[in-house]
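Data card: per-record layout.
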Amino acid sequence: MPETALLIVAAGRGHRAGGNGPKQYVKLAGKTVLAHTISAFIDLPHVSKIITVIHRDDEALYREAARAFGDRLLPPVFGGDTRQQSVLHGLRALAPLRPGFVLIHDAARPFVDSTLIARVVDGLARHEAVLPAISVTDTIKRVKDELVEETVDRANLYAAQTPQGFAFPLIQELHERAAKEKDVQFTDDVSLAEWAGVRVQRVEGRANNFKLTTPRDMEMAELILAASQQMETRTGSGFDVHPFEAGDAVTLCGITIPFDQKLKGHSDADVAIHALTDALYGALGEGDIGHHFPPSDAQWKGADSSVFLTHATELVAQRGGKIINIDLTIICEKPKISPHQPEMRQKLSQIMKIDAHRISIKATTTEGLGFAGRGEGIAAQAVATISVPLEDDHV
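The structure for this 395-residue chain is written out next.
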């Protein structure tokens, strides 16, 4: 069978799905929508080359989303002002490779599965154009100015999906023709085949292969991923100590507290954040702060410890996990911690991007015993509970 290439359309600017950027780069279960989509195709034997069409402003976002796939992807191509133009740019980039067939897929459909993809590829053995689609089950109304005009017969109505499959020379030629026509714009690629009178074969789509468009779609996607993944709970602990030295303030949980001394350390000596960061590393089995940020490295001298906690938090997200709970205890005679606890919780909430109600901060003394009791420094201990996808253990 001729070689089949995949073209993923990811150049859109749609923000209706919510989030702080284009929906294809919103993270679901620790991975971007685009990464989930690529993962659905990357190991399929009948898809030999994968190229993604992206927006010119999204190059850094794309590199981050595609990093895990390395050189298994072709270099991305910048899209145009419309979806139609973006697909044409992608087809032109693929043309020198001379694939026999091409699948054109929306980046915002991350739940496409191998069975559906195989149906489309199998259809290309007998047809020049193949469309996955599912029958419309709801009663359809035609509405104008918010008034119902009529009920539409749904007997032959189908909802189109992607990937749509084509003989490569055919779909490139149709896109080149359409690009020369004024006021000819199509919302999908099968529409070009219809426009040119090409017969299109329908194959059965999948209900889960929906396009992420609204915040509700994103919520549904999170539920689907949660249901498909077995999660395990992990717990890590961290402990740290820093002595006092001459100074006028201490930094705890990212908050500056006026005091007649400061904590001594290579970074800002935020003993609370150090203990918490080590607890997260411990839950992941990722060593400690010294492993990731060696004190021998001059760049961390005087560093804001939120950098360390942010890194540990990002590692949890990269594993597809979530931070469930943080229990932090600060051990000292002075300064007084209780007046600053609400601000500390809020600061940690911002750094870790979790609700403050998942963070407990307690303070205690050692009743005058030990180095903390003698006022020589501050200690902190932390317990972090996280949830991550269950991994198969092979010994």
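Known properties of this structure: The chain has two domains: 4-228, 231-389. Residues 4-228 form a domain with the Spore Coat Polysaccharide Biosynthesis Protein SpsA; Chain A fold (CATH 3.90.550.10).

See the next section for split statistics.
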